[in-house]
Amino acid sequence: MWNGIIEKYREFLPVTSRTPIVSLSEGNTPLVRAGSLSELLGHEVYLKCEGLNPTGSFKDRGMTLAVSKAKEAGAKIILCASTGNTSASAAAYAAKAGIRCVVLIPKGAVALGKLSQAIVHAAQVIAVDGNFDKALGIVREIAQRAPVTLVNSVNPFRLEGQKTASFEICDQLGGHAPDYQVIPVGNAGNITAYWKGYREYKSKGRVSSLPVLLGFQAEGAAPIVRKKIVLKPRTVATAIKIGNPASWKSAEEARDASKGLIDMVTDREILDAYRLLASKEGVFVEPASAASVAGLLKLKRTSFFKKAAKRSVIVCILTGHGLKDPGSALIGVKKPNTVRADIRAVLKAMDL
Questions:
Q1: Contacts of residue 101, Cβ cutoff 8 Å, sequence gap at least 6
Q2: 104 Cβ contact list (under 8 Å, min separation 6)
């Protein structure tokens, strides 16, 4: 029976017998072989489907640990700024823990699927007239002044929980790290956490090698690539619509230590990858997740993987489920045809 990432990877996590475990059985997400992408790339491509966590995104891995430690410390209120997924996860785990949850979101910039989750889990949702970076600045200041626990990725327990995804990938690959890992980059905590996890697994002898990390930001929200803060980030991929990442420095360190890269992809490339995943691989993700596959396809066009001397194993991290932002699926899509309710009309519409 699966009891969540803390019970599974307890030896790697900062918990004790006194830590009350707040879990929704997160983790244990599938690693799916992508047949079409593998054929297209000439390498073995896998999809780590983090959208199958309890609240539909990778955030649950970090939130189970952050909320467990908050409860251990006697916290009564947890607080976060969010583009959507963090608020949904924080609200759910706070409900499980019996702790009050307050979330700040950028006004008009959060997909309804995510906002509805925070509301239904009884969190107090406050919309601020500004972007995510402004909201994060506010909650960080509140955390210094008031008796609240901040559960954004600046909370170290968040990254400790998120690193468990790299453990799972290695376990699912039979005790081997992938040759390359491709991941969307927004606030940059996830790429930081994965690298930490891979290094810890190697230090314990669980794997013998480390992957090259390949991160991708949206072109309209690419501060790490452009080497400057983006004051007004713009992208269809709202989950990575961040202009001043909290884990900027550590993401660059992970990139450099792994001999990888952090690049950017356009919204068109993101949406093309989004539709490819749905139509060719049967996997429905939110647009930000597709940034990893968009980046992979961009690297194919630049012949990046021709440098590989063998058929490489590539893992793309898909961070959130498509139902988080169902409106994106309808962009540029024609409405269904309406026909008479009889078999002849339907067969004619089917060209049969």
A1: 77, 78, 79, 80, 90, 91, 94, 95, 118, 121, 122, 123, 124
A2: 79, 80, 81, 82, 126, 127, 128, 135, 138, 139
User: Cα(106)–Cα(134) distance, rounded to whole angstroms?
Assistant: 8
Distances (CA, A) of 171 to 6, 29, 314: 16, 12, 15
Q: What is the distance between the alpha carbons of residues 41 and 182, in angstroms, rounded to a whole number?
A: 14
**CATH number reported for the structural domain that contains residue 110 in this entry:** 3.40.50.1100
Q: What is the DSSP letter of 282?
A: -
Could you identify the residue written with the tokens 């749905």?
A: 278
Q: Is 39 found in the same domain as 50?
A: yes
C-alpha–C-alpha distance, residues 231 and 131, integer Å: 9
- pLDDT tens across 127-181, in order? 999 888 899 999 999 999 999 999 998 999 999 999 999 999 999 999 999 999 9
Within 8 A by CB and 6+ apart from 97, the residues are 20, 22, 67, 68, 70, 71
96-117 burial: b if 16+ Cβ within 10 Å, else e: bbebbbbbbbbeebbbebbbeb
Q: Which two tokens stand for residue 89?
A: 């996860």
Same domain for 140 and 179?
Answer: no
The amino acid at residue 350 is: M
pLDDT tens sequence across 74-98: 999 999 999 889 999 999 999 999 9
Residue 142's domain comprises 59-155
pTM of the model: 0.93
Domain-located, residue 346: no
Instruction: Please answer whether residues 158 and 149 qualify as being in contact, where contact means their C-beta atoms are separated by less than 8 angstroms.
Output: no
Report the largest interatomic distance among the alpha carbons of the chain, rounded to a whole angstrom.
70
Number of residues written out for the chain? 352
